[in-house]
Specification:
The chain is mostly helical. The protein has helices at residues 2-27, 38-52, 67-106, 124-139, 143-156, 166-207, 213-257; strands at 112-115, 120-123. A hairpin with a 4-residue loop joins strand 1 (112-115) and strand 2.
Length: 260
């Protein structure tokens, strides 16, 4: 009976670990993309749960005997995993938003492409910067931060040993608000120079009324925007590494908040 009770306890902890990791893999960048089949994500979550379960201690009060209470704990684990993955995804959404702002100034706002990962229309430059960010993430091994975050979450917020607080909700809200600040910091050089180009074209249109500024301005703004983006690319990688580090800081702050 003791062996059976021990097996049931270990299996109960395994389900908690598997549920949290599954939530992370659902909303996390790259791992949560539709390009990765669902069975592959489930298999990866199952593998990570098997590897981590021996190092995850039992809750201090043990697992509840009531099935309803246990499913409530599973729901909390799922919500925690979804929240951690969402915080990581917001960084990439900020990058895509920056590309959309650049599109509006370059004249690409009407040119959308179909994203095969999500089946929706996305801005041209936004999709370019998003894919570039994923490539930088993989080339700089920043995706290891997500895997480290999975392991670290069970150290900071033990299985069945946390609770959502107002502070944790505030961190998610602050991350949403910071999304726009990050987007502006990424697109500011390109948007600023394109605004100066628009001002210059406005001055030219006043001094040379016979000139069709609309016909000249559209290709000129596209060329200027592409040239500025080309010069920004060497700095883009450094900026992304800083954003990935900031993403990790938000995740750690959120995990600390759910246990206070």
């Amino acid at each position: 009976m003791e062996i059976l009770d021990g097996f049931q306890a270990e299996f109960g902890v395994f389900l908690l670990v598997f549920t949290r990791i599954s939530g992370m893999f659902t909303t996390a960048p790259f791992l949560g993309n539709r390009i990765i089949p669902g069975n592959v994500r489930i298999g990866l979550a199952f593998l990570f749960a098997l590897l981590l379960t021996p190092f995850v201690p039992l809750p201090a009060g043990g697992l509840p005997d009531n099935v309803f209470s246990y499913f409530l704990i599973l729901g909390n684990e799922l919500m925690l995993g979804l929240a951690v993955g969402l915080i990581a995804t917001l960084t990439f959404l900020a990058i895509q938003l920056a590309g959309e702002m650049i599109d509006m100034q370059m004249g690409f706002a009407m040119v959308n492409v179909i994203d095969p990962l999500y089946g929706i229309q996305v801005p041209l430059m936004g999709n370019f910067l998003y894919i570039l960010a994923l490539m930088v993430m993989l080339l700089t091994n920043s995706h290891h931060l997500l895997l480290w975050g999975i392991q670290r979450s069970f150290v900071i917020a033990p299985a069945a040993g946390f609770g959502f607080t107002r502070a944790s909700a505030q961190i998610v809200i602050d991350n949403f608000a910071g999304l726009f600040a990050v987007a502006l910091s990424i697109c500011a050089p390109v948007v600023g120079i394109l605004l100066l180009t628009s001002v210059a074209l406005g001055i030219i249109s006043r001094t040379m009324p016979q000139m069709n500024v609309f016909i000249v301005g559209m290709p000129l703004k596209i060329i200027v925007g592409l040239v500025v983006l080309l010069f920004m690319l060497p700095l883009y990688g450094t900026l992304l590494e800083g954003l990935f580090g900031r993403m990790t800081g938000y995740i750690i702050s959120f995990l600390n908040a759910v246990v206070t």
